[in-house]
């Protein structure tokens, strides 16, 4: 008896990407200085006024941080948009016309300065295709104690309805946690819900987050 031919179809996967910023050490001090300068001028803790009740003990800028005409911020924007273009090209190369040039535009961007006891409830980012988090200063965040980490939630809402050895490939956890590594950039699709778990530490946890759209020329 002949064995049937079985074809694997990798449907509805959720791609996440991690990059290490090569120029992090060069940019870090100037970016931190600029962020704290901006923090001193904030009118409120959450200047964006977006989902204020979902955030606790953190400072959030308005949603135009990467628009600042500061050399280090301009360079950071260039690098981050370049990473997003590479990511979008990786997952879409089979769907884009040949010989097109892609551009990523950071339409929203902000910093978070999270202090001892701070957190950000689960949420997603509408009105864009790709999002990112740049760990400028993780502070005392640690993966092993789940302290101040970003957690991403499985979008397959029914994946945990039943568990046996046949579902081991699903992970049996329903989430993915990233180690808070200094200089690291995490890129993820905008529909993916995520949170910043409670952070406990003496140092500030500082990240720059951004939302991007993609255009083809």
From TrEMBL:
InterPro entries registered for this protein in UniProt: CHP02466
Pfam families cross-referenced by the UniProt entry: 2OG-FeII_Oxy_5
The protein, known as: TIGR02466 family protein
């Amino acid at each position: 008896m002949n064995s049937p031919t079985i074809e694997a179809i990798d449907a509805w996967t959720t791609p996440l990407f991690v990059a290490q910023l090569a120029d992090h050490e060069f940019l870090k001090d100037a970016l931190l200085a600029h962020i704290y300068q901006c923090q001193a001028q904030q009118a409120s803790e959450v200047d964006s006024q977006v989902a204020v009740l979902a955030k606790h003990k953190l400072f959030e800028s308005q949603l135009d941080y990467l628009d600042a005409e500061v050399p280090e911020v301009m360079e950071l924007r260039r690098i981050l948009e370049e990473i997003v273009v590479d990511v979008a090209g990786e997952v879409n190369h089979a769907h884009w016309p040949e010989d097109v040039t892609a551009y990523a535009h950071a339409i929203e961007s902000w910093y978070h300065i999270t202090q001892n006891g701070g957190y950000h409830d689960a949420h997603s980012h509408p009105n864009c295709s790709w999002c990112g988090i740049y760990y400028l200063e993780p502070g005392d965040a640690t993966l092993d104690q789940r302290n101040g980490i970003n957690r991403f939630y499985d979008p397959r809402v029914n994946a945990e309805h039943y568990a046996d050895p046949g579902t081991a490939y699903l992970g049996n956890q329903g989430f993915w946690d990233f180690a808070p590594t200094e200089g690291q950039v995490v890129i993820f699709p905008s529909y993916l819900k995520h949170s910043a778990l409670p952070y406990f530490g003496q140092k500030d946890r500082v990240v720059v987050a951004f939302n991007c759209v993609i255009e083809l020329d």
